[in-house]
């Protein structure tokens, strides 16, 4: 560098150039630049490196946290999907059980309704038979009384004697039943 400065100094003795600064200014500028570079390297560069390292660590930490959060979210989604599938299966099972129970209840209700209907029909038949028997007995008594009264008027004597009255009624009803049986036999033959 000195070899470069020598031709400049020789030229400086001749006449000062407006483009070239003085040698003392060049040396002072060079020293100041070296001191500034040393100060910059000792004070500013470590702060920049520390800020860069902190920023890098923060970014890497954020990326790691993001990856961990993403993995956690995926695990939660998988768990949610598994629970949802399980809930759907359970709901399907509950629906199927409800259908089976409904069918069973309907079958039981039909069976009970059939049994109740059969009981009602049996009871009604028994009641009809009892009422028919009662009506026949009542009619026999009335027919017997009317028959004895009529027979007494026809014969001209009183049939007030109870034993005689009963025999007459029994004979009349027997004749009546035999004539009705004969009429029915002729009606089915014809």
Summarize the structure.
This is ATP synthase subunit b. The chain has 190 residues and is an all-alpha fold.
Largest sheet: none
Query: What best-fitting shape do the alpha-carbon axes yield?
Result: rod-shaped
What Rg is obtained from the alpha carbons, in whole angstroms? 67 Å
Our estimate of the beta-strand percent is under 5%
Chain-averaged pLDDT: 83
- Could you list the spans in which at least 5 consecutive residues all have pLDDT below 50? none
N to C succession of SSEs? HHH
How many H/I helices? Answer: 3
Helix content: over 70%
The structural class is: mainly alpha
Distance between the termini: 160 Å
Overall number of strands: 0
List the defining traits of the structure above:
mainly alpha, 190 residues, 0% strand, rod-shaped
Describe the secondary-structure layout.
Blueprint lengths: L1 H13 L8 H133 L6 H28 L1
Task: Kindly describe this structure.
The chain is mainly alpha-helical and 190 residues long. The protein contains 3 helices and no strands. The radius of gyration is 67 Å and the shape is rod-shaped. It starts with a helix and ends with a helix. The model has no long low-confidence stretch (mean pLDDT 83). Residues 63-104 form a coiled coil. This is ATP synthase subunit b. It is a single-pass membrane protein.
